[in-house]
Design a protein that fits this description.
This protein is mainly beta and about 375 residues long. The protein is built from 2 helices and 28 strands.
């Protein structure tokens, strides 16, 4: 006996869902309200329209983002999935082969992009992954904007530094090549063009223009969101990241040990991101055979300075005792080659300890 097709809708049925759900033929003309983040899987389009030729539902996200996932290779608005952001709703219709919406989600998303201004990051703090701290980086939930481009995710994402980029959390993160020793990797937020979802790519390029995009088809690079450093063994240096783009090494790094510092200014390379200016958090130990002496460590952009009380001062000095040690600390901007300058009022020896750095990406908190 042939299946009877119903081309007239029954009454609207309201149904609240607290978890993921698979929509079936009997959900035709239903209002599905999700009270938590969930996935709405769709039964095969041909099955849904076998009973009614005009199968359709309304989906309300009221407690978390709802991912609409059609069956197999079927699509929704031409994409593999669609995310209905928390606080939004959409109408879904089926034509027997694929699914379509009223475009409310994409229209609101596009409107927000067109009218937005500014550049900022809310959240998205980086951290060594607890299970694989040497190779994996976790990115906390975030919202990121740069001009008219915006992307956000209510969930964290993890990327591997020891693998080339692939879609999704736990996948490789490098735009090209393989992980290197004593290298700098910049993290960039990505936006998937089809559905606005977030991903992250890692690159040695300090600018968006230098990121290799061969693997990033279908994605837009929104903004730089952070940085990761490797050590001499090509593993991620352990760090803690604080709000307002502050990074602190778990173990302070000795960037100079008993180096000579004289009246002639010299450059010193530090363990900070390469290719950009950063404000580094330094501590010093200084020793000099002179009873009165000081050492000045400073931003190379200031040019050639002279250390001493009658000149440009110092960050650390001798305590009026020949061959005595003194300590000090300062936050100093580097140049783009990771360097600061140091100079003394008389010959001496300098130790430099690096506690971490500030690398401004635009976090307001």
């Amino acid at each position: 006996m042939a299946t009877l097709r119903r081309d007239v809708d029954g009454k609207v049925v309201y149904s609240a869902k607290g978890t993921s759900y698979t929509a079936v033929s009997d959900d035709n003309n239903a209002v599905l309200r999700f009270t938590a983040a969930a996935t709405l899987s769709l039964t095969a389009a041909a099955t849904l329209t076998a009973v009614t030729s005009q199968w359709h539902v309304t989906v309300i996200a009221d407690g978390g983002d709802v991912t609409i996932d059609p069956n197999g290779a079927e699509t929704i608005d031409g994409a593999a999935t669609l995310i209905v952001p928390n606080g939004s709703s959409t109408y879904i219709a089926c034509d027997g082969s694929n699914f379509f919406t009223d475009k409310m989600v994409s229209s609101l998303d596009a409107k927000a992009d067109e009218t937005a201004v500014g550049s900022w990051i809310d959240g998205g703090l980086l951290s060594n992954n607890s299970g694989n701290p040497n190779t994996h980086i976790d990115f906390a939930a975030m919202s990121v904007r740069s001009g008219s481009s915006f992307v956000s995710s209510a969930s964290s994402i993890t990327k591997r530094l020891n693998g080339t980029w692939a879609v999704g959390t736990g996948s490789g993160g490098l735009d090209t090549g393989s992980v290197a020793a004593n290298a700098t990797y910049y993290a960039y937020a990505l936006r998937k063009t089809s559905d606005g979802t977030l991903d992250v790519v890692l690159s040695t390029s300090a600018t968006i223009g230098g990121v290799t995009t061969t693997l990033l088809t279908g994605y837009t690079i929104v903004k730089q969101i952070g940085v990761v450093l490797t050590n001499g063994s090509s593993i991620i240096r352990p760090f803690t990241m604080y709000p307002r783009d502050e990074y602190q090494f778990v173990t302070p790094i000795m960037d100079a040990s008993n180096i000579a510092t004289t009246l002639t200014s010299a450059l010193l390379a530090l363990t900070v991101p390469n290719g950009v200016k950063t404000k580094v958090k330094l501590r010093f130990m200084f020793r000099s055979p002179a009873t009165t002496n000081s050492c000045l460590v400073y931003d190379p952009a200031k040019g050639i300075l002279v250390a001493g009380g009658a000149d440009e001062g110092g960050v650390v000095g001798t305590p009026q005792v020949a061959d005595g040690y003194s300590v000090g600390n300062a936050e100093i901007w580097t140049n783009t080659a990771r360097q600061v300058r140091h100079v003394a009022g008389a010959a001496g020896s300098l130790w430099v300890f690096n506690d971490g750095f500030y690398f401004p990406c635009g976090r307001s908190a």
